[in-house]
Specification:
Length: 299
Protein backbone atom coordinates (compact mmCIF):
# COMPACT_ATOMS: atom_id res chain seq x y z
CA UNK A 1 0.00 0.00 0.00
CA UNK A 2 1.26 3.52 -0.84
CA UNK A 3 0.42 6.60 1.19
CA UNK A 4 0.17 10.27 0.35
CA UNK A 5 0.94 12.95 2.91
CA UNK A 6 -2.10 15.23 2.99
CA UNK A 7 -1.96 18.98 3.67
CA UNK A 8 -2.74 20.00 7.23
CA UNK A 9 -6.02 21.74 8.01
CA UNK A 10 -5.91 24.92 10.11
CA UNK A 11 -7.91 23.40 12.98
CA UNK A 12 -6.43 19.97 13.38
CA UNK A 13 -8.96 17.36 14.50
CA UNK A 14 -10.98 19.13 17.19
CA UNK A 15 -13.12 16.34 18.61
CA UNK A 16 -16.51 17.19 16.96
CA UNK A 17 -14.88 17.56 13.53
CA UNK A 18 -12.99 14.31 14.00
CA UNK A 19 -16.17 12.45 14.85
CA UNK A 20 -17.92 13.88 11.78
CA UNK A 21 -15.08 12.84 9.46
CA UNK A 22 -14.68 9.37 10.87
CA UNK A 23 -18.42 8.63 10.69
CA UNK A 24 -19.14 10.32 7.36
CA UNK A 25 -20.65 7.87 4.91
CA UNK A 26 -20.92 5.05 7.44
CA UNK A 27 -24.20 3.17 7.21
CA UNK A 28 -24.41 -0.25 8.78
CA UNK A 29 -22.31 -0.48 11.93
CA UNK A 30 -22.04 3.29 12.30
CA UNK A 31 -22.39 3.15 16.07
CA UNK A 32 -19.64 0.54 16.35
CA UNK A 33 -17.35 2.59 14.16
CA UNK A 34 -18.11 5.70 16.21
CA UNK A 35 -16.94 3.89 19.32
CA UNK A 36 -13.74 2.92 17.52
CA UNK A 37 -13.12 6.50 16.40
CA UNK A 38 -13.63 7.77 19.93
CA UNK A 39 -11.15 5.20 21.23
CA UNK A 40 -8.56 6.47 18.73
CA UNK A 41 -9.33 10.18 19.26
CA UNK A 42 -8.09 10.20 22.85
CA UNK A 43 -4.60 9.23 21.67
CA UNK A 44 -4.29 11.81 18.87
CA UNK A 45 -2.64 14.58 20.95
CA UNK A 46 0.06 12.12 21.99
CA UNK A 47 0.55 10.74 18.48
CA UNK A 48 0.97 14.33 17.30
CA UNK A 49 3.59 14.92 20.00
CA UNK A 50 5.47 11.82 18.83
CA UNK A 51 5.18 12.85 15.16
CA UNK A 52 6.62 16.27 15.93
CA UNK A 53 9.51 14.83 17.92
CA UNK A 54 10.24 12.52 14.99
CA UNK A 55 9.99 15.17 12.26
CA UNK A 56 10.99 18.29 14.20
CA UNK A 57 8.06 20.20 12.74
CA UNK A 58 4.43 20.82 13.69
CA UNK A 59 3.42 21.04 10.03
CA UNK A 60 5.23 17.91 8.88
CA UNK A 61 4.27 15.89 11.94
CA UNK A 62 0.60 16.79 11.61
CA UNK A 63 0.69 15.93 7.90
CA UNK A 64 1.81 12.38 8.69
CA UNK A 65 -0.85 12.03 11.38
CA UNK A 66 -3.46 13.29 8.91
CA UNK A 67 -2.36 10.63 6.43
CA UNK A 68 -2.62 7.96 9.13
CA UNK A 69 -6.21 9.02 9.83
CA UNK A 70 -7.06 8.94 6.13
CA UNK A 71 -5.76 5.36 6.05
CA UNK A 72 -7.80 4.56 9.16
CA UNK A 73 -10.96 5.90 7.53
CA UNK A 74 -10.28 3.69 4.49
CA UNK A 75 -9.75 0.62 6.67
CA UNK A 76 -11.11 1.01 10.23
CA UNK A 77 -10.29 -2.63 11.01
CA UNK A 78 -6.61 -1.74 11.45
CA UNK A 79 -7.35 -0.70 15.02
CA UNK A 80 -8.55 -4.21 15.89
CA UNK A 81 -5.03 -5.65 16.04
CA UNK A 82 -3.64 -7.02 19.29
CA UNK A 83 -2.31 -4.47 21.75
CA UNK A 84 -5.32 -2.17 21.66
CA UNK A 85 -6.19 0.99 19.69
CA UNK A 86 -3.20 3.04 20.89
CA UNK A 87 -0.67 0.47 19.72
CA UNK A 88 -2.61 0.01 16.48
CA UNK A 89 -2.67 3.76 15.81
CA UNK A 90 1.08 4.15 16.35
CA UNK A 91 1.74 1.03 14.31
CA UNK A 92 -0.27 2.48 11.40
CA UNK A 93 1.58 5.80 11.69
CA UNK A 94 4.92 3.96 11.72
CA UNK A 95 4.08 2.04 8.54
CA UNK A 96 3.26 5.30 6.80
CA UNK A 97 6.38 7.06 8.11
CA UNK A 98 8.63 4.19 7.04
CA UNK A 99 6.95 3.94 3.63
CA UNK A 100 8.53 7.29 2.68
CA UNK A 101 12.00 6.32 1.50
CA UNK A 102 13.88 9.36 2.79
CA UNK A 103 12.71 8.69 6.36
CA UNK A 104 14.52 5.37 6.46
CA UNK A 105 17.90 6.75 5.47
CA UNK A 106 20.63 8.33 7.56
CA UNK A 107 23.26 10.67 6.19
CA UNK A 108 26.67 9.01 5.83
CA UNK A 109 28.91 9.51 8.85
CA UNK A 110 32.63 10.11 8.95
CA UNK A 111 34.72 9.32 12.04
CA UNK A 112 36.50 12.68 11.61
CA UNK A 113 33.28 14.70 11.49
CA UNK A 114 32.69 17.16 14.35
CA UNK A 115 29.96 16.06 16.73
CA UNK A 116 27.39 18.56 15.49
CA UNK A 117 27.78 17.27 11.94
CA UNK A 118 27.55 13.65 13.09
CA UNK A 119 24.06 14.39 14.43
CA UNK A 120 22.89 14.15 10.83
CA UNK A 121 23.80 10.45 10.85
CA UNK A 122 21.41 9.51 13.67
CA UNK A 123 19.69 6.37 12.46
CA UNK A 124 15.90 6.70 12.05
CA UNK A 125 14.73 3.34 13.43
CA UNK A 126 16.74 3.50 16.68
CA UNK A 127 15.40 7.02 17.13
CA UNK A 128 11.84 5.73 16.75
CA UNK A 129 12.49 2.98 19.29
CA UNK A 130 13.96 5.43 21.78
CA UNK A 131 11.07 7.90 21.45
CA UNK A 132 8.41 5.20 21.71
CA UNK A 133 9.86 3.99 25.01
CA UNK A 134 11.24 7.21 26.51
CA UNK A 135 8.73 9.80 25.27
CA UNK A 136 5.53 7.82 24.73
CA UNK A 137 6.00 5.39 27.61
CA UNK A 138 5.25 2.21 25.70
CA UNK A 139 6.33 -1.08 27.21
CA UNK A 140 9.09 -2.91 25.37
CA UNK A 141 6.53 -5.42 24.11
CA UNK A 142 4.22 -2.75 22.68
CA UNK A 143 7.07 -0.69 21.20
CA UNK A 144 8.37 -3.85 19.51
CA UNK A 145 4.89 -4.54 18.12
CA UNK A 146 4.67 -1.00 16.74
CA UNK A 147 8.03 -1.31 14.99
CA UNK A 148 7.32 -4.89 13.89
CA UNK A 149 10.40 -6.33 15.63
CA UNK A 150 10.90 -8.66 18.58
CA UNK A 151 11.80 -7.44 22.07
CA UNK A 152 15.55 -8.25 21.84
CA UNK A 153 15.71 -6.29 18.58
CA UNK A 154 13.82 -3.41 20.20
CA UNK A 155 16.33 -3.33 23.08
CA UNK A 156 19.21 -3.31 20.62
CA UNK A 157 17.63 -0.36 18.77
CA UNK A 158 17.21 1.63 21.99
CA UNK A 159 20.82 0.92 23.00
CA UNK A 160 22.04 1.95 19.55
CA UNK A 161 20.09 5.18 19.80
CA UNK A 162 21.64 5.90 23.18
CA UNK A 163 25.14 5.43 21.76
CA UNK A 164 24.40 7.73 18.83
CA UNK A 165 22.82 10.42 20.99
CA UNK A 166 25.84 10.34 23.32
CA UNK A 167 27.93 11.74 20.47
CA UNK A 168 26.02 15.02 20.71
CA UNK A 169 28.08 18.07 21.63
CA UNK A 170 27.36 20.05 24.80
CA UNK A 171 25.43 23.29 24.70
CA UNK A 172 24.38 26.11 27.04
CA UNK A 173 20.91 25.61 28.50
CA UNK A 174 18.48 28.13 29.98
CA UNK A 175 15.90 26.66 32.36
CA UNK A 176 12.69 28.65 32.94
CA UNK A 177 10.96 26.98 35.87
CA UNK A 178 9.54 28.43 39.08
CA UNK A 179 9.12 25.18 41.05
CA UNK A 180 12.35 24.75 43.01
CA UNK A 181 12.57 20.97 43.09
CA UNK A 182 11.65 20.56 39.43
CA UNK A 183 14.23 23.19 38.51
CA UNK A 184 16.86 21.34 40.54
CA UNK A 185 15.96 18.03 38.87
CA UNK A 186 16.21 19.61 35.42
CA UNK A 187 19.53 21.26 36.23
CA UNK A 188 21.01 17.98 37.47
CA UNK A 189 19.71 16.08 34.46
CA UNK A 190 20.94 18.67 31.94
CA UNK A 191 24.42 18.66 33.47
CA UNK A 192 24.51 14.84 33.54
CA UNK A 193 23.96 14.92 29.77
CA UNK A 194 27.09 17.04 29.39
CA UNK A 195 25.42 20.42 28.95
CA UNK A 196 26.09 23.65 30.85
CA UNK A 197 23.25 25.45 32.64
CA UNK A 198 23.43 29.21 32.06
CA UNK A 199 20.91 29.81 34.81
CA UNK A 200 17.49 29.01 36.22
CA UNK A 201 14.88 31.72 35.70
CA UNK A 202 11.73 31.77 37.80
CA UNK A 203 10.04 34.70 36.07
CA UNK A 204 9.74 36.23 32.62
CA UNK A 205 12.08 39.07 33.62
CA UNK A 206 14.79 36.74 34.94
CA UNK A 207 14.67 34.66 31.75
CA UNK A 208 15.29 37.72 29.58
CA UNK A 209 18.13 38.93 31.82
CA UNK A 210 19.98 35.57 31.72
CA UNK A 211 19.57 35.07 27.96
CA UNK A 212 20.74 38.59 27.15
CA UNK A 213 24.04 37.99 28.91
CA UNK A 214 24.70 34.91 26.78
CA UNK A 215 22.25 33.38 24.28
CA UNK A 216 21.49 29.73 25.17
CA UNK A 217 21.76 26.81 22.78
CA UNK A 218 18.62 25.21 24.24
CA UNK A 219 15.72 26.42 26.40
CA UNK A 220 13.64 24.30 28.77
CA UNK A 221 10.61 26.36 29.75
CA UNK A 222 7.60 25.93 31.97
CA UNK A 223 4.57 27.62 30.42
CA UNK A 224 2.77 28.93 33.50
CA UNK A 225 4.99 30.62 36.11
CA UNK A 226 3.96 31.17 39.72
CA UNK A 227 4.18 34.98 39.64
CA UNK A 228 1.59 35.07 36.87
CA UNK A 229 4.10 35.60 34.06
CA UNK A 230 4.36 33.25 31.11
CA UNK A 231 7.32 31.17 30.02
CA UNK A 232 5.74 31.12 26.56
CA UNK A 233 5.79 34.93 26.40
CA UNK A 234 9.41 35.01 27.57
CA UNK A 235 10.45 32.52 24.90
CA UNK A 236 8.57 34.38 22.16
CA UNK A 237 10.38 37.59 23.13
CA UNK A 238 13.77 35.86 23.11
CA UNK A 239 13.13 34.30 19.70
CA UNK A 240 12.82 37.77 18.20
CA UNK A 241 16.57 38.25 18.64
CA UNK A 242 18.04 34.76 18.10
CA UNK A 243 17.08 31.24 17.03
CA UNK A 244 17.20 28.44 19.58
CA UNK A 245 15.36 25.12 20.05
CA UNK A 246 12.79 25.24 22.86
CA UNK A 247 11.22 22.47 24.91
CA UNK A 248 8.09 23.44 26.82
CA UNK A 249 7.18 21.66 30.04
CA UNK A 250 3.62 21.79 31.38
CA UNK A 251 1.22 19.91 33.61
CA UNK A 252 -1.52 20.47 31.02
CA UNK A 253 -0.20 19.44 27.58
CA UNK A 254 -3.69 18.92 26.16
CA UNK A 255 -4.29 22.70 26.42
CA UNK A 256 -1.51 23.31 23.92
CA UNK A 257 -2.32 20.52 21.45
CA UNK A 258 -5.70 21.71 20.20
CA UNK A 259 -4.70 22.83 16.70
CA UNK A 260 -6.30 26.22 17.33
CA UNK A 261 -3.05 28.20 17.72
CA UNK A 262 0.64 27.86 16.86
CA UNK A 263 1.78 24.99 19.04
CA UNK A 264 5.09 23.92 20.60
CA UNK A 265 7.01 21.44 18.47
CA UNK A 266 8.58 19.92 21.60
CA UNK A 267 6.34 19.43 24.61
CA UNK A 268 6.88 17.43 27.81
CA UNK A 269 4.14 16.72 30.34
CA UNK A 270 4.63 16.93 34.11
CA UNK A 271 5.49 14.76 35.92
CA UNK A 272 8.25 13.76 33.51
CA UNK A 273 10.76 10.94 33.37
CA UNK A 274 14.46 11.82 32.97
CA UNK A 275 14.67 9.61 29.87
CA UNK A 276 11.90 11.68 28.27
CA UNK A 277 13.76 14.95 28.80
CA UNK A 278 16.96 13.36 27.46
CA UNK A 279 15.20 12.06 24.36
CA UNK A 280 13.42 15.31 23.55
CA UNK A 281 16.50 17.46 24.23
CA UNK A 282 18.50 15.32 21.81
CA UNK A 283 15.78 15.56 19.17
CA UNK A 284 15.47 19.34 19.54
CA UNK A 285 19.23 19.84 19.16
CA UNK A 286 19.35 17.34 16.30
CA UNK A 287 16.81 19.22 14.19
CA UNK A 288 18.16 22.65 15.13
CA UNK A 289 21.69 21.79 14.06
CA UNK A 290 20.50 20.09 10.89
CA UNK A 291 18.60 23.27 10.02
CA UNK A 292 21.67 25.44 10.63
CA UNK A 293 23.79 23.12 8.50
CA UNK A 294 21.32 23.43 5.60
CA UNK A 295 21.41 27.23 5.87
CA UNK A 296 25.19 27.47 5.66
CA UNK A 297 26.34 28.70 2.22
CA UNK A 298 28.42 26.30 0.20
CA UNK A 299 32.16 26.95 0.39
Amino acid sequence: MSYRVFPVRRNFFPEPALRRRLTCGIGTGREVFLLKSQAVAQYLPFLRRYARALTGSQHSGDAYVSTALEALINDPNVIDVSGGPRVALYRLFTKIWNSVGVNGKASPADADMPADMRLASLTPKPRQAFLLVALEGFSEEDAARILDVDVPALRALVEESGRELAAEIATDVLIIEDETFIAMDLETLVESLGHHVLGVARTHTEALAIARKKPPGLILADIQLADGSSGLDAVNELLKTFEVPVIFITAYPERFLTGERPEPAFLIAKPFQPAMVSAIASQALFFSRNARTRKKPAA
